[in-house]
Amino acid sequence: MSKLLDIDSISVSYGSIKALREVSLHVNEGEIVCLIGANGAGKSTLLKAIVALEPITHGSIAYQGQMIAQIDENGAKKKFGVPIRRSKGLSSNLRTDEIAGRGVALVPEGRRVFADMTVEENLDMGAFLVRDDELIARKKEEMYDFFPILGARRKQKTRSLSGGEQQMLAIARALMSSPRLLLLDEPGLGLAPLIIQDIFEKIHIINREDKVTVFLVEQNASIALKASNRGYVMENGVIVLSDFSTNLLENEKVRAAYLGDS
Ligand SMILES: Nc1ncnc2c1ncn2[C@@H]1O[C@H](COP(=O)(O)OP(=O)(O)OP(=O)(O)O)[C@@H](O)[C@H]1O
Ligand SMILES: [Mg+2]
């Protein structure tokens, strides 16, 4: 199995707060990998770092075998890949839109759909990198087939949708760009168990049938581990455990700390 995403020893700080400390992990092509951890562990920060919404201060991130972010020993960003036409020096890592253009889509925590737009307009926003109108129209129809509730509500303002429907819309919006790697930040957050189950079934189909590799972050460890091939456990910005998800589900430390067993 080849590594689609390879994160090597990255750190991220917010001022004096070290949110990630030399985190290493990888996601193989075709896998569903989860990252679990308590409130404030650094899970969202890691996803933001992958798509360059937060700058790394140490380490490197490779995607499809190519560096997309790297800090050298002197703490400066390195240049690579695309010709650099931007300002000199520090801005040479790939930008968020360039990373999206390579096939990485993030569904952010709290969904962040555009409440005043219709369902259809939200899907159009997800296709901002797609130039072909016919392809956009076809992708939208695919999304309406895959999430029938979105088809039924296509002309409705997004604010009228339930939380579960908004999460489905956020996922559909991310799929509009036909990503190869889908990053999901707490897809189950605030939703009822049956709705969470629906959403994870969709995630499985996206992975299995559309061959989209999935990296998902969850506070709900039980759901995340049952839905994934492998998992990482993060505490205070550090990876403390990694294993196949079936093993993590049996792990005593994981059971005590994250699965509510005593
Ligand atoms: N924009 C920011 N400015 C300052 N500190 C931040 C910022 N975003 C996050 N932090 C801090 O960084 C740490 C990691 O936060 P992060 O949001 O990555 O955690 P998380 O694991 O996603 O938590 P949750 O499960 O609550 O979503 C926390 O201590 C948080 O308070
Ligand atoms: Mg978070």
Question: Would you kindly provide a written description of the structure presented here, covering whatever features stand out?
Answer:
The chain is an alpha/beta fold and 262 residues long. The chain has ten helices and ten strands. The protein has helices at residues 43-50, 96-101, 119-126, 133-146, 148-152, 163-175, 193-209, 221-227, 245-250, 252-258, and strands at residues 3-14, 17-28, 32-37, 58-63, 66-70, 104-107, 181-185, 213-218, 230-235, 238-244. The strands form two sheets. A six-stranded mixed β-sheet has the order 6-7-8-3-9-10, with helices on both faces. Strand 7, helix 7 and strand 8 form a beta-alpha-beta unit. Helix 3 (119-126) runs parallel beside helix 6. The longest helix has 17 residues, at 193-209. It is globular, with a radius of gyration of 18 Å. The two termini are 36 Å apart. Bound molecules: adenosine-5'-triphosphate (ATP) and magnesium ion. Magnesium ion (MG) binds next to helix 1. Adenosine-5'-triphosphate (ATP) binds at residues 14, 17, 19, 37, 39-45, 109, 219.
